[in-house]
Write a structure and sequence with these properties.
The complex is a heterodimer of chains A (313) and B (524).
Chain A: H1 16-36, E1 41-42, H2 44-47, E2 49-56, H3 62-72, E3 78-81, E4 87-92, H4 99-112, E5 119-127, H5 129-157, H6 160-183, E6 187-188, H7 190-219, H8 229-239, H9 241-261, H10 267-312
Helix pairs in contact in A: 1-6, 3-4, 5-6, 5-7, 6-7, 6-10, 7-8, 7-10, 8-10, 9-10
Chain B: H1 5-23, H2 26-29, E1 31-32, H3 34-37, E2 39-46, H4 48-70, E3 74-80, E4 83-88, H5 94-100, H6 102-105, E5 110-116, E6 121-126, H7 128-153, E7 159-162, E8 167-173, H8 178-186, E9 191-199, H9 206-211, E10 217-225, E11 232-241, E12 246-247, E13 251-258, E14 266-272, H10 274-286, E15 292-296, E16 299-302, E17 314-321, H11 323-335, E18 342-350, H12 352-406, E19 409-410, H13 412-441, H14 446-478, H15 481-514
Parallel strand pairs in B: 1-19
Antiparallel strand pairs in B: 2-8, 2-18, 3-4, 4-6, 5-6, 7-8, 9-11, 9-12, 9-15, 10-11, 13-14, 14-17, 15-16
Helix pairs in contact in B: 1-12, 1-15, 4-7, 7-11, 12-13, 12-15, 13-14, 13-15, 14-15
Classes of the chains: A alpha+beta (313), B alpha+beta (524).
Chain lengths: 313, 524
C-alpha cells in the first residue's frame, strides 16, 4: 500500500506565524507588482476595445505589423505573439468607430503591407464601452455573491468564526492569484474571473473538510478530552492532510495539463487555476485553521480576564 | 447479502442506458459553442430613440399636410425633442388649428400642451406610453427582420433573441464568411430615391459644401472601391433634396441581375408595388432631364439621368457589386429596412480553423488529465482505485449525456471544466478511501471499515459539493457564453459525481466484498 502520510503529526498550527510571514511576503510581492504596473491590466472584456487574432502565412516582422497599424491611427495598439511565431494578437483601444470599420481598416492596412504576405483573421472580439462597464459591474457582483454565499453556508453549517476564517483564507487565495497574474503580466479577462471564482469554491471546499473533522472530533468524548483548541485543530488538519494533498495533486495535474497543453486561448485561465490550486491547498493547512485558533484564543483570553476581574471585585 | 442490491443495479443500468441513448451519436447531440465550431456572436443595440424621432418626424409631416389640406396657415411645424411644435401664422386660425390636431390626440398617442394663444404656439407631446410602444415595436421589428434576413442567408441553427428592451443577441454558428454575414445583419437597408440638385467636385471638402446648403438640401457621398486593396472610401458626390420621393417601402420585389454595362459586376433589379409604380411614374415624368439619386443607407449607389417617364415600375440599383453583395442587397430589400439602425455593442467572432485547433487541444488536455488521474488512482488505491476510475468514466458519460439532454453548449472553457471535473470528481473517492484506510488502522474489520468510511465521509462530501456548486451557479448566472459553458460542465460534473463516486462506488464495493462469507482484506 502506498501512503503519502502515515498518521502525520506535523505541528502546522504551531508554525502558523511563519506561514503568516510567507503569505504576507507573497501578497506584498503581488501588491508591489500591481502598484508599479498601475493596477491589473484589464482585457477588452472589461476595458472595451478590439482584439484581432491573425495568422500569417509566413513569419512576419513585428515591426512591419506595427508600422501598418500606426498608419491607420487607431490609437495605441498592443501587438503580441500568440503561441506561434506566425500567430499574433492585436489589441486596439476603444475608439468612436464601429467595429466593422475597425476590422476593415486593420485588414486593409495589413493587406497593404506587402512584406507581411498572406494572412487569415482567426478571431475578432469587440467589446463596446457599454458592455465593458456592465461586465465590470457583473464581475464585482459575482465575486461578492460568491464570497457571501460561502460565508453564509459555512456560518450556518459550522459557526461564524469558521465562516469568516474561510472567507479570509479564500480572499488570501484570490489576492495571491491576482498578484501572480500581475507579476507574470497576464490580463484580467472573463475566463480569468471564472477561474478566480472556481478557486473560491475549491479553496473553501478544502477548508470545510478540515472543519468537518474538527467538529466530529469535538463531538467525541474520550481521546480528545482535555486537549486545547489549537491542538485539536492541528489534529484535524493532520487527519485530513493526506486527502487534502491527494486531491490537490489530482486537481493540480488537471490544471497543469490545461496550462501546458490546453492551448494559448486558455492559458491565462489555466494559469489562474494553477496558482489557485497551490495557494488554496496551502491556505487550508496554514491560514483557515490558524485563524480560527487565533480568534478562539483571543476570545478565551478575554473571557479569562473577564472572570479574573469579576473574582477580584 | 446487503439489502436492495438489485434495485441499485437496475438504477445504475438505467442511468447508463439513458446516457448512451441521449448521447448517441455524439457528433449530433453535443452542441459546440461558437468558440469551438467557429461563428459570430453579436450583441446589437437597437437605436430605439432614433425610431422614436423618426416617428415624431412623420407625425410632424402628417400634421403639416393636414393644415395644408384645411387651409390653416402655419409658420412652422417642427419636432423639438419628443414633441411637435406648431407656430400658427395668424390668431384667427387658433381654434381651427387646435381642432385639426384632434385626429392626432384622439388615440391617446399625443397630448396638446403649453397652449399659448397670445404667442400663437402649442405643442403636441408624445405620451410616455405611446413612446414606449414605438420603441418596443421598433425593437420587435428589428428582431423580426433580422430573423428573416438570416433565414434567407441560410445559417444552420442561428440564435436571434431579444436581450432587454433595446438589445438583440445574434449568434451564427459555423459561418465561414464573417464579413459578409455582419454586413447583412448590420445594414439598415433604407432605400431612398432623392432628386439631385447638382454634382460636386469629389476632391472638395464636405464641410465647406455643407456650410452653404439650404436646410432642405443635403450632401451625400458615394463609395469608391480600390481594386487593389479592396478597401472602400467615401467621397462627396451629389447635393440632393433632403425629402425622399420614394423609399424601399414602395418595393414589391428585388432580384439579382448581371450588370450589362460592366462585365463581372452585378446589380439588383427592383419592382415597385402598385402605389410605388404610380409614384415612380409621376416622379420620372415630372423630372425628365434631371438626375435621380438612388440612396442606400445614406450613400448614393448611382444617380442616373431620367431620360423619359418610366411607367413599368422597375428600376435597377447598380454600384460595382460583387455577386455576394448583390445577393445580400436583394435579401435586405426584400425583407425590408430596419425601423431603427443597429449598433454593435459586443462582437466575438471565431474562425473555423481556430475552433478546430481549440477542440484538438481541449481533447488532448482532457485525455491527458484523465490518463494521469486514472494511473494515479490505480497505483495509489489498487482495486479500489480501479473502482474509482470506473466511476470517473461513468461520471464523464453522465456529464456529456446531461449536456446533450438539456441542449447545453460545450465551449472551450467548458472543456477546461471537464478536465477540472476529472481532477475534482475523484476527490470524493479520495475522501471515502482515506476514511476507510483510517478506520482500518483503528482496527475495524474490512466490512465495518467500508461501512464507516462511506457513512462518515458522506457529510463532508455534501459540504464540499455545496460550496463548489454554489460558485458554479453564480458563474452561470453572471457569465457570458463561454464562461457559462464552464459553469455548466463544472456543475453537472460535480452533481454527477455525487451519484458516481458515492452511490455507484458503494454498489461496486458491495458487489465485490459483501457477497462473500468472509472478507479478510480489501485492496485499498
Amino acid at each position: 500500500m502506498i501512503q503519502l502520510f502515515r498518521d502525520p503529526t506535523y505541528d502546522f498550527i504551531g508554525k502558523r506565524r511563519w506561514a503568516y510571514v510567507l503569505s504576507a511576503l507573497v501578497i506584498a510581492v503581488g501588491v508591489v507588482s500591481l502598484v508599479s504596473k498601475g493596477g491589473l491590466r484589464y482585457d477588452i472584456d472589461f476595458a472595451g476595445g478590439t482584439l484581432i487574432q491573425v495568422r500569417f502565412a509566413e513569419r512576419p516582422q513585428i515591426g512591419a505589423i506595427r508600422a501598418s497599424l500606426t498608419r491607420i491611427q487607431l490609437g495605441d495598439s498592443v501587438i503580441q505573439e500568440f503561441g506561434d511565431p506566425r500567430e499574433f494578437i492585436l489589441r486596439l483601444p476603444l475608439t468612436k468607430l464601429p467595429s466593422e470599420e475597425i476590422i476593415k481598416r486593420v485588414q486593409g492596412a495589413l493587406g497593404a503591407e506587402a512584406s507581411l504576405g498572406k494572412f487569415e483573421i482567426r478571431r475578432v472580439e469587440f467589446v463596446g464601452p457599454q458592455v465593458g462597464r456592465e461586465l465590470q459591474l457583473q464581475a464585482i457582483y459575482a465575486v461578492v455573491a460568491g464570497l457571501v454565499g460561502i460565508l453564509l453556508y459555512v456560518a450556518i453549517r459550522f459557526d461564524l468564526k469558521g465562516g469568516v476564517a474561510a472567507i479570509v483564507a479564500v480572499f488570501h487565495d484570490v489576492l495571491v492569484s491576482v498578484g501572480m497574474l500581475s507579476l507574470t503580466d497576464r490580463e484580467f479577462s472573463l475566463p480569468v474571473l471564472a477561474a478566480l471564482l472556481t478557486i473560491i469554491g475549491y479553496s473553501v471546499n478544502d477548508t470545510i473538510v478540515a472543519y468537518d473533522r474538527l467538529r466530529e472530533n469535538r463531538g467525541r468524548t474520550g481521546a480528545f478530552r482535555g486537549i486545547g483548541f489549537a491542538a485539536m485543530m492541528n489534529i484535524a488538519v493532520n487527519q485530513t492532510l493526506s486527502r487534502t494533498v491527494l486531491t490537490a495533486l489530482t486537481t493540480f495535474f488537471a490544471t497543469a495539463i490545461l496550462l501546458f497543453f490546453g492551448g494559448k486561448v486558455l492559458e491565462d485561465f489555466a494559469f489562474a487555476l494553477f496558482v489557485g490550486v497551490i495557494t488554496g491547498t496551502y491556505s487550508t493547512i496554514y491560514i483557515a485553521g490558524a485563524l480560527v485558533v487565533e480568534w478562539t484564543a483571543y476570545v478565551e483570553g478575554r473571557l479569562r480576564r473577564g472572570k479574573k476581574a469579576v473574582a477580584k471585585a | 447479502m446487503p439489502r436492495n442490491l438489485w434495485p441499485r443495479i437496475v438504477l445504475v443500468a438505467l442511468v447508463v442506458l439513458g446516457s448512451v441513448w441521449y448521447l448517441y451519436p455524439p457528433k449530433q447531440t453535443i452542441n459546440l459553442g461558437l468558440d469551438l465550431q467557429g461563428g459570430i456572436h453579436l450583441v446589437l443595440g437597437v437605436e430605439t430613440s432614433k425610431a422614436l424621432a423618426a416617428q415624431i418626424d412623420r407625425v410632424a409631416e402628417d400634421l403639416k399636410a393636414a393644415f395644408d389640406r384645411k387651409g390653416i396657415a402655419v409658420k412652422r411645424v417642427a419636432r423639438e425633442g419628443a414633441a411637435v411644435v406648431v407656430d400658427i401664422a395668424s390668431p384667427q386660425v387658433w381654434t381651427d388649428a387646435l381642432t385639426a390636431t384632434n385626429d392626432f390626440t384622439a388615440g391617446g398617442g399625443f397630448e396638446r400642451r403649453e397652449e399659448d394663444q397670445a404667442a400663437g404656439r402649442f405643442k403636441l407631446v408624445m405620451s410616455e406610453r405611446y413612446a414606449a410602444k414605438v420603441k418596443e415595436d421598433a425593437a420587435a421589428q428589428v428582431l423580426e427582420r433580422l430573423r428573416n434576413r438570416i433565414d434567407q442567408f441560410g445559417v444552420r441553427e442561428p440564435t436571434i433573441a431579444r436581450q432587454g428592451p433595446d438589445r438583440v443577441l445574434v449568434q451564427l454558428p459555423g459561418v465561414q464568411d464573417v464579413a459578409r454575414a455582419k454586413a447583412l445583419i448590420g445594414q439598415t437597408g433604407l432605400l431612398e430615391f432623392k432628386l439631385v440638385e447638382r454634382f460636386v467636385d469629389e476632391t472638395a471638402r464636405a464641410e465647406e459644401i455643407e456650410r452653404e446648403l439650404p436646410p432642405d438640401q443635403q450632401l451625400l457621398p458615394r463609395r469608391i472601391v480600390d481594386k487593389e486593396t479592396k478597401t472602400e472610401r467615401r467621397v462627396p458626390y451629389v447635393v440632393v433634396r433632403r425629402a425622399a420621393l420614394l423609399t424601399g417601402e414602395g418595393l414589391s420585389e428585388a432580384r439579382v441581375e448581371a450588370d450589362p454595362n460592366s462585365l463581372g459586376n452585378w446589380q439588383v433589379g427592383v419592382t415597385f408595388n402598385s402605389s410605388g409604380t404610380q409614384r415612380f411614374g409621376e416622379i420620372t415624368e415630372r423630372n425628365v432631364g434631371r438626375h435621380l439619386a438612388i440612396v442606400l443607407d445614406g450613400v448614393v449607389t448611382s444617380a442616373p439621368r431620367i431620360n423619359e417617364r418610366i411607367p413599368g415600375g422597375r428600376a435597377v440599383i447598380t454600384g460595382q457589386f460583387t455577386v455576394e453583395q448583390a445577393q445580400d442587397l436583394k435579401i435586405v430589400l426584400n425583407e425590408g429596412a430596419l425601423p431603427a439602425s443597429v449598433e454593435n455593442l459586443e462582437e466575438r467572432t471565431v474562425g473555423p480553423s481556430l475552433g478546430a485547433d481549440s477542440i484538438r487541444q481541449g481533447v488532448i488536455a482532457i485525455l491527458a488529465s484523465g490518463a494521469i488521474v486514472f494511473v494515479f488512482m490505480l497505483v495509489y488505491y489498487r482495486l479500489s482505485g480501479l473502482i474509482a476510475d470506473v466511476a470517473l468514466g461513468l461520471n464523464l458519460l453522465i456529464l456529456l449525456a446531461c449536456m446533450a439532454a438539456f441542449g447545453a453548449t460545450l465551449t472551450l472553457p467548458g472543456i477546461a471544466g471537464i478536465a477540472l471535473t476529472i481532477g475534482m470528481a475523484v476527490d470524493t473517492n479520495i475522501l471515502i478511501f482515506e476514511r476507510i484506510r483510517e478506520e482500518l488502522r483503528l482496527g475495524k474489520t474490512p466490512r465495518g471499515a467500508v461501512e464507516a468510511g462511506f457513512t462518515r465521509a458522506f457529510r463532508t462530501i455534501i459540504d464540499t459539493h455545496v460550496t463548489v456548486l454554489v460558485t458554479a451557479a453564480i458563474l452561470y448566472n453572471f457569465g457570458t457564453g463561454p464562461v457559462k459553458g464552464f459553469a455548466v460542465s463544472l456543475f453537472v460534473g460535480l452533481a454527477a459525481s455525487l451519484f458516481t463516486a458515492v452511490f455507484f462506488t458503494r454498489l461496486l464495493f458491495d458487489l465485490i466484498y459483501m457477497g462473500r462469507q468472509k472478507v479478510s482484506a480489501i485492496s485499498i
